[in-house]
Amino acid sequence: MRTVLLIDDDVAFRTMLQELLASHGWNVLEAHDGEEGLRVALEHKPDIILCDLLMPRVNGFQFCREVNSRRGALPDTKLVITSGSGYAIDRINALESGADEYLTKPVKPDALFRLLERLAGTRGTQTELFSAPAQMTGKSGETRVKFWGVRGSIASPGPNTVFYGGNTACVEVRADGELIILDAGTGIRELGQSLKKEFGSKPMRMTILVSHTHWDHIQGFPFFAPAYEPINKVRILAFEGPRKGLEQTLSIQMESPYFPISMQEMPGNIEFEELKSMEFDIGAVHVKAAFMNHPGVCAGFRLFTSAGSVAYFPDNELYGRFRAELGVSKTGDTARFARERDKRFLEFIQGSDIVISDAQYDSHEYPKHVGWGHSCVDDVVSLGLDAGVKQLFLFHHDPDHSDEHVAHMLASARKQVAQTDSNMIVEAAREGMEVVLKAQA
Length: 441
Hints:
The chain has helices spanning 11-23, 34-44, 60-69, 88-97, 109-120, 125-128, 187-199, 246-252, 319-325, 333-349, 377-386, 403-418; strands at residues 3-7, 27-31, 48-52, 78-83, 101-104, 142-149, 170-175, 178-182, 205-209, 233-239, 270-275, 279-282, 285-291, 299-305, 308-313, 354-358, 391-395, 425-428, 434-438. With 441 residues, it is of the alpha/beta class. The protein folds into two domains: 3-123, Response regulator (Rossmann fold, 3-Layer(aba) Sandwich); 128-438, 4-Layer Sandwich (Metallo-beta-lactamase, Chain A).
């Protein structure tokens, strides 16, 4: 039986939650403050802790830090902060303190149980991914997605972006014996360092899918350490751009005076392939591509793995609002064209387990950026709902958006979902975040 620990000085709330959880088969432990809660947690090692934010003696932030300082004793316990505060900054601070999730009171039972099931299903996954250097994918039948860069346009490090991260686009996917890297923004540098630490002197084989060659999607490649090791095989795939081929574009950014090492000086272990087909295979992973509405030639990819599918739409401007903002009538050929194009995007991601989508602007910002090639978050959420997506990750965060701004956009997106009967999970992608899909038995 799974165990949950409730820590809250509100006896009425704790009693209500205890009865609700017990009726759904959970073993429930209780504590009235953080000090008592820490003692109970260390003794019983619950699967999940639900801890109130504002309590006397030890508040929720302090409790999170205490638990994370004792991770050796509580390696698999997931921590959820509950609070009546709806302020985005409180959520950010709770997550920075070590919480896995933040739940606003009053707690909706259906949302609570979806969250608990999701967290209970990920026990131990953070340490499993890199525990066996000889394996590319971890456990058989699992697909693992990890974010290394989530920003768009230009890297934006600093105190206001420390939570979600300031590196540009890079996502790691491990599935069916393959290591697949989606884009080579600045986030690929830290991925490379992690891979070197994991594999040591053992050879690596990987495929990099480049959505397009705008600078924020390729500028990290010269700093990708595994590419400099002759024993590794690095395969780079992309559709040809409007002026230069893939290899030439990547080589130009490494020419003098821009970079001290040219592409020609790198080992001959890098293979470039200009994509021609909209469907291809990377080992046992089948890949479908679709062209995005973005300046130049930009593609999105959907990876079909044994554990589910992952769709990656890093830069895309949905047509409906784009054409509407340009003053196009809701009737006529142009409007029909816009609806048809958005329908194609919907069909492409239909039923995806994970969708990583451009959601750079909120509804107030978008009118000032019409035609820039990036979507309004409201439209992205609507598309995910219509397509029956299971998990939607808001991606390509604007470089001018602080962590607080991104958190507000996420809260708005979740509110939009809550107004429907959908179970779609919405998250804002953040560096270091990892998602695991498990094959159905």
